[in-house]
Structure formats: C-alpha cells, structure tokens
Amino acid sequence: MDRMSPLFGRKAPASRARLVTLIRKPGCHLCDDAQVVVEKVCGELGVPWEERDITEDSHLHDLYWEQIPVVLVDGEQHTFWRVNEERLRKALTD
Predict the structure, then answer these.
(1) Cα–Cα distance between 5 and 87 in angstroms, integer?
(2) pLDDT digits over 23-44, tens only?
(3) Does residue 14 sit within a domain?
(4) How far apart are CA 88 and CA 70, in angstroms?
(5) Could you report the per-residue pLDDT of 47-69, keeping only the tens digit for each?
(6) Are 54 and 61 in contact (CB under 8 A)?
(7) Does residue 82 lie within any of the structural domains?
(8) CB distance 73 to 18 below 8 Å
(9) Largest CB tally within 10 Å, which of 7, 11, 63, 78?
(10) What is the largest CA-CA distance in the chain?
(11) What is the pTM for the complete model shown?
C-alpha cells in the first residue's frame, strides 16, 4: 500500500527503521508530559525521536494547532493531547 506522509509529503519508510516526532509548543504542560513518555519509550526501544515546534512552522500550525501535543510515528499521526506509554510502545514494536 502506498501511503504518503502528511507531514513530509513523501512515502513513509518501508523498512523497520522508525522515527517518532513530537509536535509541541513552548509553555504547554501537556507537551511536557508527552515528551516524558516519548523520551522513555523511545529510549527503552532505541527509537530516534525529534521535536517540532508548532510556533515555528506554519504548515504544522495549520494541521495540528487544536490537537497539540501530537505524536507522529513514521510521519503518520499516532495520537494527540495525551500519550499512552503502552500504546506508543506497541506501535513501535508491531
């Protein structure tokens, strides 16, 4: 199945290499909570993750401003507002 990444406008990786993206904004307590979970799960699994600031990217702002924090797995939306540790772990190991 061809799936385009809404964030990057390219195909999601076909390999098992994973990337988690946390979309957040400064001063957001839910974003801070989400980052703790992302750091923990990605650290335990050895999965790289990145942080994107919604206030510095108009495209991300238009897509996600009502949902932050947003977590993407391989460029596709995984969750928003609250990050469930077990659900993220499952998404990264399945």
Answers:
(1) 20
(2) 999 999 999 999 999 999 999 9
(3) no
(4) 12
(5) 999 999 999 999 999 999 999 99
(6) yes
(7) yes
(8) yes
(9) 7
(10) 39
(11) 0.81
Per the structure, the complete domain to which residue 69 belongs is given by 20-93
Q: What CATH number is given to the structural domain containing 79?
A: 3.40.30.10
Residues 1-26: tens digit of each pLDDT = 334 444 544 444 434 689 999 999 99
Number of domains the chain contains: 1
Q: Is residue 73 part of a domain?
A: yes
Tell me how far CA of residue 31 lies from CA of 34, 38, 53, 71, 94, in angstroms. Answer: 5, 10, 10, 10, 25
